[in-house]
Amino acid sequence: MKLQTVLFDLDGVITDTAEYHYLAWKRMADQIGIEIDRDFNERLKGIGRMESLERILVHGKKAEEFTSEQREQLAKSKNDHYVSLLIHLTPEHTYPGIKELLDQLREHEIPAVLASASKNAPQILASLQLADKFQYIVSPDGIPGKPAPDIFLKGAEAVGADPSYCIGIEDAQAGIEAIKAAGMYAVGIGEHDLLQSAGANIVYNRTSQLNLSSLLEAALME
Ligand code: B16
Ligand code: MG
User: Fold this and answer.
1) Are 121 and 56 part of one and the same domain?
2) What is the CATH number of the domain that holds 74?
3) Which residue has a Cα nearest atom 15 of ligand 1?
4) Tens-digit pLDDT profile for residues 175-210
5) Could you give the percent of the chain with pLDDT greater than 70?
6) Which of 118, 138, 143, 207, when mutated, tests ligand 1's pocket best, judged by the most ligand atoms within 8 Å of its CB?
7) Which of 64, 88, 112 is the last residue of a domain?
8) What's the whole-model pTM score?
9) Section 32-39 average pLDDT
């Protein structure tokens, strides 16, 4: 069974943009009188922008108070703040082992695909100087977000890969569920029990533990 493609999540796998998402959501939530903390933020990982906003409004019991135009405005104000925080991002913010894994894939002519829910993904990859390491960046526009499989399926299709010969790497429960629903081998990064219960085939604590030969061995691929 030959590995055809590796699909990477961005936030939490390639870099830690979760902190910037948290700061931007927190400021927006404060402005409308909703309190969120880092524990609550865990529930937003891997979840798209408008669905994250919905979860915050429900959490603050204010889901009925905002029209769709007002929601668009709130999401825009959060995103403007988030994008302003991204100027701090440099190649040093790439998680350990990721650039090396991308280089190993290139050496073996295995395409790397970015399967992120973030519309800001191209800008983030550019700041990390990793854009040229990916054969394809999935645009999440107009397709169902994680835990639906669509982002991963679209990525595999774009490079002509059969999902059952693909490996997906994710840090969020919703992302692992998306990879499994796509019929791929799921590698979790982070908390073992949480990600295994979401369906991960294997879980590593840190990205520095990732490398091509151990991934192939774990997935019974070559
Ligand atoms: P944006 P991932 C996700 O990225 C983040 O984990 C999530 O917190 C964020 O709301 C979502 O992208 C959308 O991001 O507002 O930039 O479009 O983990 O799928 O790489
Ligand atoms: Mg993530």
Assistant:
1) no
2) 1.10.150.240
3) 49
4) 999 999 999 999 999 999 999 999 999 999 999 999
5) 100
6) 118
7) 88
8) 0.95
9) 96
**How far is the CA of 130 from the CAs of 112, 133, 167, in angstroms?**
11, 6, 19
Distances in Å between the Cα of 7 and the Cα atoms of 85, 125, 159, 194, 196 are 26, 14, 11, 21, 18
State if residue 207 touches ligand 1 by the CB under 6 angstroms criterion: no
What single-letter amino acid sits at 135?
Answer: Q
Question: How many Å lie between the centroid of ligand 2 and the Cα of residue 175?
Answer: 7
Q: For residue 124, is it left (φ>0), alpha (ψ between -120 and 50) or beta?
A: alpha
Q: Residues 9, 30: one domain? A: no
pLDDT at 98: 98
> For residue 211, what are its two tokens?
């490398």
Q: Where in the sequence is the domain holding 142, given as residue range(s)?
A: 5-15+94-219
Q: Which ligand is nearest to the CA of 13?
A: 2
| pLDDT at residue 1 in the model | 87
The active-site residue out of 11, 103, 141, 193 is 11
* Residue 151 in this model has a pLDDT that exceeds 90: yes
In 13-92, the DSSP E strands lie at none
Count of domains observed in the chain: 2
Mean pLDDT (whole number) for 71-99: 97
